[in-house]
Amino acid sequence: MTLALDQVTTIFLAVALLVVGTVIVKKAGFLQKFCIPAPVVGGLLFAIIATILKATGLLEITLDTSLQSLFMITFFTTVGLGASFKLIKLGGKLLVIYWLACGFLALAQNAIGVSLASLFDIHPLIGMMAGAVSMEGGHGAAGAFGQTLEDMGINSALSIGIAAATFGLIAGGLVGGPTVKYLISKYDLKPTETEEDVTNVEEKVQEITTNTFFTQVLLITFCMALGTYLGELFSTATGFVLPGYVGSMFVAVIVRNIVDKRNPNAIDMKSINLIGDVTLGIFLSMALMSIKLWEVADLALPMLVIVFVQVVFIVLFGIFILFRLLGKNYDAAVMVAGFTGHGLGATPNAMANMAAVTERFGPSRKAYLVVPIVGAFLIDVFAMPIIITTINLFK
């Protein structure tokens, strides 16, 4: 028996699973601790149920996920619109060093994934899905590039990417604290400032109005339209695969910094972030609920080995290289905690890791300035070209 869900019903189901996932995460302390996204929980729950129904021969559910790409492009466009290069000046030298380290990490993660994939005699791009795509990129990039690779005929790419991203999130939360505790104990590190020194400057919160909201929608849709069009032209002219969402994101980066010079108040990040959160949630929910878990079984062991090596690498890199590059002090140690968090998972992981460290040992304004700026959007400026180049080298 087959149950075919149309486009509208599929979107409803995605939103419903997102809400269900939110409820489960709020009630499950483990999921909150490791910052597991609600759409991942809800979508994965549905994927498990669908797999059981198919395996028992009771029911096969088919979904119409044709609008998934629209939500995906919208999300990556909002990421690009958040990339104001004015923020780089605020972070100074430390931000640039940290940013370059993230770029190197993306390159190293792909090298590890592709190399280990060859040892297991699986497609190199399956290995890449357990590299920078799912580690630095997290669930968003895993869903996006996984779908791109499946469209290219590489089966199980989406499932492997999502699974690797989930294990990466958990690992990032587990190893960040112990890594920094080791550094603090070994070098007897102390904060350079006290809680009294850290003053919270309250930003003026502007109310979201219809006019400001539609201005942001105008900017987003313009970047989406131009970016996908330029991406298609580029791919046609060069034969180099450039997914539409990547073109939209980079057009959005350019638009953001042009608009900043003309009218800094034109872009309302509260509205942009709201749109980004909604579209990411629906996109991830649709990506997770449509994965075919039965295709992952044969690749489970290689994926776990690759993720384990990624964890070991980032810990060693953080302790022996990044810590020293950032100044070998308390602020550097806290930034290593953030680096481990979003290098294996996502920016919320990074913030959770740093919060755990600073609550126990003391504040670090530098870390709280640098890590969110790079982790939230600047990281993609390096990671995206590296991922796209890897795809084109091994397609």
From TrEMBL:
It is a multi-pass membrane protein. The chain crosses the membrane at residues 6-25, 34-55, 67-88, 95-120, 157-180, 213-231, 237-259, 271-294, 300-323, 367-394. It comes from the Bacteria. It is found in: Cell membrane. The keyword NADP does not apply. Pfam families: Glt_symporter (PF03616). InterPro entries: GltS. Keywords: Amino-acid transport, Cell membrane, Ion transport, Membrane, Sodium, Sodium transport, Symport, Transmembrane, Transmembrane helix, Transport. The keyword Ion transport applies. HAMAP family: GltS (MF_02062). Catalyzes the sodium-dependent transport of glutamate. Belongs to the glutamate:Na(+) symporter (ESS) (TC 2.A.27) family. This is Sodium/glutamate symporter.
